Amino acid sequence: MTKKKQIIGVIEKIIIAGSNGKKKEVFARIDTGADYSSIDKTIARKIGYSETINEFHDKLIKCGKKIFEMKRVDKEEYFSGIPFFKTCFKIKSVHGFSYRPVVNILFNIKGMEIKTKATIIDRSQLKYPVIIGRKDLSGFLVNIISEKM
Q1: Nearest to residue 131, comparing CAs of 114, 119, 142?
Q2: DSSP string for 65-118
Q3: Backbone angles phi, psi at 60, to 5 degrees
Q4: 23-31 and 11-17 as β-strands: parallel, antiparallel, unpaired?
Q5: How many domains does the chain have?
Q6: What's the CATH number where 10 sits?
Q7: Cα–Cα distance for residue pair 31/10, rounded to 1 Å
């Protein structure tokens, strides 16, 4: 018997938790156009990823444009040792390409707990501090008409 899918809107209240066990309740945009979920660096800091953000940023600055020439395995080795760092993704957005650190997070949406990897980026100029990408949406149907909060 197949499990019934939860219907969610394009905006949902979620509870997000990170490395320090602290939880934060925020509104998230459900983004079926994004592969991965992404969290704002301010939220990421509050749930325990300050060192990850700082060390990734420092190493990225030191590396400079060489990052674009590095193979994936070389990037993994270069960034290894950063607390809670899992990998980095090259993400294309309307602003061009960026490299983002990836960390493990746990979020709860409509009573369903999702363990996943999320990128960290500055989303302070955007309306929602978190986007939930399609890789984390199995088990859900998205009602694109609804923009409830």
Answers
A1: 119
A2: GGGGT--HHHHHHHHTTSTT--EEEEEEETTEEEEEEEEEEEEEETTEEEEEEE
A3: -65, -40
A4: antiparallel
A5: 1
A6: 2.40.70.10
A7: 7
Q: Output phi, psi for 37, to 5 deg.
A: -75, 155
What is the chain's length?
Answer: 149
Per-residue confidence (pLDDT) for residue 118, from 0 to 100: 96
Q: Is residue 149 part of a domain?
A: no
Residue 50: enclosing H or E segment and its boundaries? helix 50-63
Characterize 75-91 residue by residue with b for buried, 16 or more Cβ atoms within 10 angstroms of its Cβ, and e for exposed: beebbeebebbeebbeb
Q: What is the pLDDT of residue 48?
A: 95
Q: Give me the sign of the Cα torsion angle 35, 41, 44, 48.
A: positive
Q: Mean of the pLDDT values across residues 14-24?
A: 93
State the pLDDT at residue 95.
Answer: 72
88 in a structural domain: yes
Which tokens in the block code for residue 37?
């979920």
Is residue 1, in this structure, part of any structural domain at all? no
> Which range of residues forms the domain containing residue 104?
6-143
Segment 80-92, tens digit of pLDDT: 999 999 999 888 7
